[in-house]
Design brief:
ATP hydrolysis activity; Alpha-Beta Plaits; single chain; six-stranded mixed sheet; Rossmann fold; nucleotide-binding; 10 helices; AAA+_ATPase; alpha/beta; four-stranded antiparallel sheet; 300 residues; 2 domains; ABC-2 type transport system ATP-binding protein
């Protein structure tokens, strides 16, 4: 649908994007993942034609008109005219996107319903919460029915219900639109993405179909929840089983290893008993996208 070939960008003498190449599959959702400073926002800005690359090219396939009219974009920190109401703002965005006035008004009603803002259509944007503004930003990005939708952290200001609503909306939109969105919420990406594009320091660290990426690991994972801090226990486990990867966050520990599930579970339980740690829950499963991401970042 769109291809990026050897794309590069430097700022203040520092190369931010380093000759990246990838192609997005049509009518699929690609999650763009990376640590802060990885180059995600710069990449999205170049795809949206907001920023010009220093080298390389971006090719939008199967289009006979200005590619910018076929792109919808939501920046990470959108700005709005606070004196306008939601319906006025989205209608204006539709007209700027090339829709006739009557069609823009009609489409504005539709997308405000899609984004859960129908009851706030006449409310001034200055009165909107952060989550409502995030929804409004998505509404303006989709009003002109773009073939390519670019979203920079579209769920960062949303509560859990709002994130769930937008995940469902993106799943519906991909029937007619190709979507690339950056996110730090890996759980949502695991639920909705078809493809995963990981960036690190301006380079592509991994680019693969999600199902293939997940099935490529033979590691097993265990998640332990307790009522006590697990830092000391985690360090003890690292020394005993150096082949395991262990992440501890206060009273939660995630343990990954190449051992068979039954053998790992027995060793984890044995250690918990030895250290007299009362367990609230112990769950087993395949490696999560979150742990895969951390693994990739540690080895690039």
């Amino acid at each position: 649908m769109i291809s990026v070939e050897n794309l590069s960008k430097a700022m203040a003498g520092t190369e931010i994007i380093k000759r990246i190449t990838f192609s997005l599959r049509s009518h699929k959702i690609t999650a763009l993942l990376g640590m802060n400073g990885a180059g995600k926002t710069t990449t999205l800005h170049m795809l949206a034609a907001i920023m010009k690359p220093d080298a390389g090219r971006i090719v939008m396939h199967d289009t006979g008109r200005d590619a910018r009219t076929e792109i919808g974009f939501l920046p990470q920190h959108p700005t709005f005219h606070g004196w306008m109401n939601a319906c006025e703002y989205v209608t204006m965005a539709g007209e700027l996107g090339g829709l006739p006035r009557k069609e823009a008004v009609k489409r504005a009603e539709t997308v405000l319903v899609q984004t859960g803002l129908q009851e706030s259509a006449e409310q001034r944007i200055s009165e909107f919460s952060g989550g409502m503004k995030q929804r409004l930003g998505i509404a303006q990005a989709i009003i002109h029915r773009p073939r390519l939708l670019l979203l920079d952290e579209p769920m960062s200001a949303l509560d859990p219900q709002g994130r769930k609503d937008i995940v469902l909306l993106l799943a519906e939109l991909k029937k007619t639109t190709t979507i690339l969105y950056s996110t730090h919420i890996l759980h949502d990406a695991e639920q909705i993405a078809d493809d995963i594009l990981m960036m690190n320091k301006g380079e592509i660290a991994a680019f693969e179909r999600l199902d293939k990426l997940m099935s490529g690991s033979s590691n097993r994972t265990f998640t332990v929840h307790t009522d006590v801090p697990l830092d000391d226990w985690g360090e003890h486990l690292r020394k005993r089983y150096p082949e395991w990867t262990i992440y501890v966050n206060e009273t939660k520990a995630e343990i990954e290893g190449p051992s068979a599930e039954s053998a790992m579970q027995a060793k984890v339980m044995e250690s918990l008993i030895e250290n007299q740690i009362t367990v609230r829950s112990l769950t087993a499963g395949s490696q999560s996208l979150d742990t895969l991401f951390r693994e990739v970042m540690e080895h690039v």
